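Encode chain A's predicted structure.
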Amino acid sequence: MNYPIAQKEISCPICGDSTKILPYGRQHYLIGDGRIPSSIYRCKKDDFNFRKFDRPLAEVTTHFKIAPYSTDQIEQQWLKKREGFYRFLLDMLSKPTEGKSLLDIGCAFGHFLDCAAQNGFRPFGTEVSEDMADLLRKRRNYPVSSKPLSDLELPERQFDVITFIDSFYYFENPLETLSQCYNLLKPRGELLMRITNRNAIACLCHFFGSLLAPNTTLPKLPFCATDDAISCHSRQSISNVMEKSGFEVIKLTCIEKGKKIDSKGMELFYLLTSSIALLTFGRVCLTPGIICLAKKK
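Encoded structure for chain A:
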């Protein structure tokens, strides 16, 4: 399949190369009450899809008010399904945990922080949605900042653990974000993230979109191809960005455990994609998420 040549000014946020960039598709980014046109690009070198995104932070936080996790009541319902998964993630971290400081970036209503506190961590959080952060402050005595990560006024080497639970893909500059985390972590501090895995879906949508509309320069991608992610990562892109940021990857897996799945279809999908990942030693990653545990060198 022939791809159009990307604009020279578009370069990969990870490798900085503009020669390996493909215009990949068109999509509307759902924010607030409007649907904002957005172009999706793909870096073949890093297996990384990203959105050319220049919206102000205020519009991003407005988006959170209409997202499926926009109320604590809904989040409480999700917590019942994900509490075991949170424990699975926390069990990946080094022991002992008692007294260690943990910063959860994009902590929402703080349910992961609650689980971390139950495991002995001293919880801290950041959440750009003031409504979510304010509710967490009222309900718990956790230090929570509503400032963007780049604006946090925190001393270096403060935290033992930093986590991104489905929040890392909201950052359009992964290298800069991880550099800030590197400075905030203590020596040999741990970085744990769970990332939604959408690139395989985007690849299929791009392929069939190009077949159905061969004369279209940029096929229209459905929302499921990226969801509301700005940066769409793969195992390869995560490995590359960690290495460039000075982190040592300890574990990189597509296998997720502990979730309560109330749909037979989704249960079968998890079983099928997990089996494929195991049989191919992770080379074929079609699971809904990717988990990465890394350490500061």
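The chain is about 35% helix and 25% strand.
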